[in-house]
Every structure is written in structure tokens, then in C-alpha cells.
Amino acid sequence: MNQLVQGLIGRQLPGAKGNSSASATCRKLFAGILLAALLPATAFAAKAASQSPEIKSLELQYLASTNPEQREQLMSALKTLVKSSTADNAGALNAAVSAMLPAANSPAEAEALLEIGAALPAIGAASGERGNSEDKAFLVDARSAAEAATLAKGDIEELADVRIDRLGKGATEREWLTSSHVQQVWRINTTQGAGSFSRRSVMYASMSESLRMVRARVLKQDGRTIDAVVSSDQPVVARSVPMYFDSRRRGLGFSDLAPGDVVEVEYYLLPASEVNPWGGYYARLDTFQDRFPTRLRRRVVIAPSTMKLYTVEEGLPPAVVTQKDNESTRIWEMRECGAHIREASAQGEKKVGPFVHVSTIGSIEELGRWYSELLEPALKLDEHLQAVADGILARKLNTQEKVRAVYESVQHGTKYIAFEFGVFSYQPYAVSKVEKRGFGDCKDTAAMIVALLRAVGVPAEFAMVRTRSEGTVAPNAYSIELFNHAVAYVPELNLFLDGTAKHVAMGELPLKDHGALALTVDAHGKATLRTLPSSAPEPDRAALELSAPNSIAEAK
Fold first, then answer.
1. Is the backbone of residue 540 left (phi > 0), alpha (psi -120 to 50) or beta?
2. Element housing 440 (H / E)
3. Which of 345, 242, 225, 332 has its CA nearest to residue 287?
4. Residue 538: is it exposed, middle or buried by C-beta count within 10 angstroms (0-12/13-18/19+)?
5. What is the pTM of this model?
6. What is the pLDDT of residue 351?
7. d(CA 32, CA 5)
């Protein structure tokens, strides 16, 4: 900046040719005014650049604190920083919020952090740029797609739904990072369709992804293009149940829609970090029908040729696979997909419809070993939980009595609140943290039951469950994406225990669990597919009528 000011001082101002002294005075005065104007901007830039250490300090203080009032003050300070921050600090702020969310000790703290995260400066606003030119071959021209679709179908139809996943190495040789390029094109066919489509949103997982919009626009029949109104991101919270996610929703507003209009949305989902919390794991389940009739649905996976991927298709042709420059490209495509409404059968089971499942895991044995590595660190007991286990052992109970003591302790001592943040959407929190919080989700209660049962000498397995309401998928598809629930399993008694079922006696299961598919993982990482019973197991029913022991909550 000093060189800029000196350069301006050296120039002669217009109209100052006749008086060199006056010219020099004017030049100095102009330079002074310019310097005064530039200094605040420079100071602001320095202040913005210096926020990263302050953000990191607030993050570390929060993680080290157990005092609710102090944590509230730290979150308030972080919120103030967000208000004065620029996009340059968005990465540091997002990293801080991502580290703090899993450590929240109450829903109130989680809500406050989610609001801070949603207020971060947006990265990559709509720019109209096409992005990766190599993807052009997989995308469609929105106007051409509309012209080709001569016969309208329904109030709204999806002309194209394209998703391109690119897999590349992360920070280590074992990690894989995924970037996704998504294009969706709809046509409005009726006035009713126009009224229902004015508001849309794009969701992304803020702890693992950054959302970069390419375009969100309306293509009018008269040739005009109208950009969508993009609103600020909002956290996604399930208000009907106590569940909190790291998902954010970016709102898109399309005004004055009319029959014949074409809506196009295109965006990237990019890795938020160079480290994949799942290591070398990648998996995705894509269905090929939704609520709108669809002219074209295309899924593309581009990966290094050396990367082993296992694919399962149902209801659509196998992928077209090509090799180029040490990369393998797989393309699944389906045209003229009818609208599909997932209606439950009389037994509560839903049909998935055509789908493709892609995973780096190709066997049940491999899935068991991989998930065991995520699970086992969470099962370590702290001193208090070990004392609970020792107390049960001291009572000289038989197997059924030990199981009942553990089950009802967790069942009545752990409130259901789900913190689905980052890796913890599939990995349980440490049981010691869950016990201290007094709350957890299905994974957390299942892990607590398994950990305590093993501590009192009863072999127990963690069970990932796919409830019948999710529908059935091919038996040779292996990934944790397929499961939506978790319980504990006691092989000796052939007994499943759902720690989230507060009013269900041991030996029984809530209706949602009846007949569900489960993948159980034992202490050695051995996985087994099982089916949950539709009624209570028969062995030793009298033993299940024992009186309830003290719960963990009471032991405190």
C-alpha cells in the first residue's frame, strides 16, 4: 500500500501545471486523504485475517469446559465473530462448529451451535459458471430437454436428474474423498404445479461438505432467464422428535412460475476437509423413482481404476463402464421413470423400487470388521460405569437376571435425544459421555447395553437394523447406509434389546422392530445377518418377570 501512495504522490494532478508548489501541496493533500481512506480497510483486512486464532481459541476453550455458563459465553463470543466475519474465515468457523457440535452437552447448546453454523458466510454463490468441463458430457441442456419432452406428464415432471460422484485420495493413502456434481431440471406443466413449486431447497451435510451453487434459475418460454432468490442457510432439526443433524438447507425461491417454465438447479458438494472421517469407506444407495415422473435419471461414479467398487443393481441395467487415464467411469441410466409413491403394505413394509448400491465393501465379513473398528472405542467403560458393572456382578445373578439389570438400567436411565453430527450419524458416542449426558440415540443405548453386558460376563453383539418400513434391498449389498436403527443382541438367549423402547418389557420389541433385518457384530468383528422376531422369544419366560434393579440414573 505504501508503494501505491508513493506512486500517486509522484503523479501531477490535472490543472496543476502552472504552480509546482501548489501542485506538490495538492499531491500531498490527496495522498493524505487516500491514506486515511485506505487505513480502515487495511485494518479490517488485518482484523479479518487475525480471526482464525481467536476462533480456534474459542473452540478449544469450549471443548475443555464443563461449565454450562462458561460454554454459553464462549458460544456468544463465537456468534459475535460470525457477524463480523468474511468468507475468508468461513473454513475456520465451520471447523470450530463441527468440532463443538458433537461435544454439546444439551439440546440448548446444540441448537445454539447449529444457528451459528447456519449464519456462516456462504461459500460459492450462484455464478453461472459450468465448473468441471469434464462433466459436460454427462449433463443436459435444459431448454433442449424441454423441447424434446413433447407430451407433458403430471403437474410437474423432472426432465433430468444427474449426479456425478468423483472419488479421489484424501490426506492418506487409505482415505477417499468424494465430490459430487448435481443437476436437476423440472418442467412446470400446470397452474397447480406452478403454485406448489415456488419454494425449493438444497440440503448438505455441513460437517463433511461445502455447497457451491452453480445456478438456480427459471427458463421462461419467451427466452428470458430469471435467477432464483437464494436465502441464507438454515439448520435442519426434526421438531417432532428430539433429533439434531449437521444438515443445512439453502432455500431457493422461484417467483411468478407459469405452465411451460423450466426450472434448473445445479450445484457441487465438495469435501469440507482433506480428511475423510470414514477412512477408505465409500457407499451410496440411489433410488431411480420419486414423487415426480422423470424423463432421465443418470448416476455417474468416477474413481481411480485401482479402487475396488462393488455394485448391486435392481430394476435397471448394469452400469456402462469405461476406462481412461487410470480412471474408471460407471454410468447407470434410466429413462421414462414413472412417479413412485412409497405406500406401506399391510405388514408395514415399503417397496424401494429400482436402485443402485455402490460400496467399497464387498462382503459381510469385511463390513463387520470395518464397523467393529468404529464401534469398539465407544464401548470403553469409565470408572463410574465400571462401578455399575461391578455392582451387578456382586449380586451373583444368573444370565437372565444380569441381562435384565443392564437393560432396565439403560432403558430407564438414558433419555432419547439424537445428536446426528458427522461421523456420529453411524458411530455411537463413547458410552461414558452418553452416561454423563443422560441421553443418547438408538446407537448410543445399544452400545451402552453391549458394553455393560460384556463387563458383567454376558457376550453381547451390536445390531444394526433395517426396519421393514425402509423396504428390502438385495442381500449382497453391504454398507451402513442400508440401516436406520440399532439394538443390542444376546446370542445365549437369542434376545434382542431395544434401549429406546421406554415402555417395552425385556423379551419384547416395539412394533417397528418386528421382522426387521439385523446385522450383528460381535466383540471380534464377526458379522451375522439375522431377523428380529415378530413376538417375544419363548425360553424361560418366568425369568423375564423378575423385579427391576436400580438404574444407572439411580446409581448416581
1. left
2. strand 439-440
3. 332
4. exposed
5. 0.81
6. 61
7. 9
